[in-house]
Amino acid sequence: MRITNVKLARISVPLRVPFVTALRRVDRVEDIIVELDTDTGEKAFGEAPPTGVITGDTAGAIIGAVQDHIARTILGRDVDDFEEITKAVQESCVHNTSAKAAVDMALWDLYGQKWNIPVYKLMGGARSKITTDITISVNDPEIMAADTRTAIARGYDTLKVKVGIDPALDVERLLAVRTAAGEKTRIRIDANQAWTPSQAVHILDRMQEKGLDIELCEQPVKAADIEGLKFVTDHGIVPVLADESVFSPGDAAKIMQTHAADMVNIKLMKCGGLSNAQKITALAEVYGVECMIGCMLEAKVSVNAAIELACAKSVITRVDLDGPVLCAGDPVIGGAVFHEKEITVSPAPGLGVRGFEDGKLSVFWAAKED
C-alpha cells in the first residue's frame, strides 16, 4: 500500500452557539482536511483546525507545512514502513503540530485499513464507548446559566465551564452555573491561562468555600509558567490539569516528574498526532498520572481520531471531545457515533471515516508521487 496522492481541502461547519473563551471567540469551524490516497484504492483523512492563539498554527501555516514539507516526505512511501514514515512526518519541519497531527492520523487510518483492524484496537482496545463533557462558554452569568440548562436538558452530566474573562466575575459565573446545574452535575473549569498563580489559588479557594464543588481546574496560568502551575497545584485545593503547558511527550514528562500538575490534557493538535499522544499515555502509565483527552474546536474527523485513542487507553479517565456536538451539523460520513454525551467508536478498519456529504468539502490542492 503506497501513498500516491496528498490532497488538501477546506471544511466549514457552523456552531450551535458562539464558542467563547478567555483567548478567542469562534462562530463556525473552519478547518483544513488532509486526504491521503494509495495505489490500492484506500483513502484516509485527517483534520487540522487553525488555532493560532493556542498552537500558533494558522490556516496558511497548516497549508504551507503540508505543501512544502510533509507531502514530499510521505509521497511514494509504503504504509508498511509505518514507524519510519510517522517519524519522518514529525521531523519534516519545526513546530507545525496541527499539520503533523492531520497527516499522522491519516497514516494511522491507512495502517488500520491495511491490516483490517480499528485503530483503537491496534493501540490497546480498552473499551468501545466513552462519555464526554460539554463546554459552557464564558459569558455573563445569566447566559451561562441558560446554556447550562440547555446542556442538562440534552442529557449532559459533566460540564466544562470556561472562565477567565474578568476574574472578578468568575465566582459569580460559577455560582450561576452550579445553581442551574444542580448538585449532582460534575463541573470542571478552564481558565485558558487567564490567571496569575496567586489569583488562581484565591479564586479556586473561594469557589470551593462557596460549595461549588469544582472537580478540576484546567490551565489556570500561562503555558510557559511551569513554576506558577506547580504553585497552584501545591497550594490550591482544586486538582490542576495541565493543557497548554503540554505540547510534547517531553513537556508531559517534565510536568509529571515535578508534579507541576495533577493531570495532563492530551490534544492531538498540540502534540502532533496519535503517534506522540501514545507516548504521553505511556509516560502517564509509568508515573501514575491520569489523563484527559481533549480537542480544540474541531469537526468530527480529528475528534474521531482522539476517540480512537481514548477508547484504546484506560489511563485516559476524562473525556472532553464535544467539538462535533457543538456543531450545528455533521457532514462527515462514518467514524464514531455520537448520542450526545455517549460516544461509540467505529468498528470499521482504520479510523472509520469514509468521506463527506456532497458539496461539503472543497479540495484546493493536490500532489502526486513522481
Helices and strands in order:
Elements: E1 3-20, E2 25-38, E3 43-48, H1 59-74, H2 82-91, H3 97-114, H4 119-123, E4 129-131, E5 134-136, H5 141-153, E6 158-162, H6 167-181, E7 186-190, H7 197-209, E8 214-218, H8 226-235, E9 240-242, H9 249-258, E10 263-267, H10 268-271, H11 274-287, E11 291-294, H12 300-312, E12 316-320, H13 323-326, E13 332-334, E14 337-339, E15 342-344, E16 353-356, E17 362-368
Parallel strand pairs: 5-6, 6-7, 7-8, 8-9, 9-10, 10-11, 11-12
Antiparallel strand pairs: 1-2, 1-17, 2-3, 4-15, 13-16, 14-15
Helix pairs in contact: 1-3, 2-3, 5-6, 6-7, 7-8, 9-11
Structural account:
- With 370 residues, the chain is an alpha/beta fold.
- It folds into 2 domains: 122 residues, 2-Layer Sandwich (Enolase-like, domain 1); 234 residues, Alpha-Beta Barrel (TIM Barrel), CATH 3.20.20.120.
- Helices cover 39% and strands 26% of the residues.
- Strands 5-6-7-8-9-10-11-12 form an 8-stranded parallel beta sheet. A 4-stranded antiparallel beta sheet has the order 3-2-1-17, with helices on both faces.
- Helix 7 links the parallel strand 7 and strand 8.
- Helix 7 packs parallel to helix 8.
- The longest helix is centred in the first third of the chain and has 18 residues.
- The relative contact order is 0.17.
- The mean pLDDT is 96.
